Amino acid sequence: MKKIKSGKYIIKEIFYSIQGEGFHSGRPAIFIRFSGCNLWTGREEDRFKAICKFCDTDFVGTDGLNGGVYNKNELVTKINKITSKTKCRFIVFTGGEPMLQLDGNLLDEFKKYSYFLAVETNGTIQVLSGLDWITVSPKAGSKFIQTSGDELKLVYPQEDFNPMDFENMVFKHFYLQPKDDKNIKENTEKALAYCLEHPKWKLSLQLHKILGIS
Predict the structure, then answer these.
(1) Residue 149 CA: distances (Å) to CA of 133, 196, 208
(2) Which domains does the chain have, with CATH numbers?
């Protein structure tokens, strides 16, 4: 999927929950999940040829809660309605890969309402200025270009990926997150052991999955 430049935003879902991973784990947030990704189509029949083969997120289409095709004003109005009830000012742009669609015009509009704006990206597309928090989660086999941000969250283990290769990059926080597959118990043990041996890294668990919520 190529970067979209249409003035329209294809949204899988918009929902209010808690951040389940990384530095802001446990913090209430409004999630805007953009459809589409450049590392996998999202279709199971294509997983074997995807760059990222372990993604566990449904980012296809617009059939999720509050999903649809929005222009800038429509999307900001939708979020304002949600925040009028929740009082939450923390927005997380996620996906899929949000940097395929996220642009300066949309960020500027949100900034008018004093939101704290965070992005979760795979790091294959340069992020924009105007974001308050940048979380980068590299995927093996992709062209990784976003080498700075607030937190680097590495799904672990990934073949041919050594956490030490990222330690000199410009991030404030470094997290290892156990890969959630059939080997989740073993992966968690490996991630924990690595963090104990390399204290620059912190363990990130998927709190929302532990709690059984979105």
Answers:
(1) 7, 23, 23
(2) 8-153 (3.20.20.70)
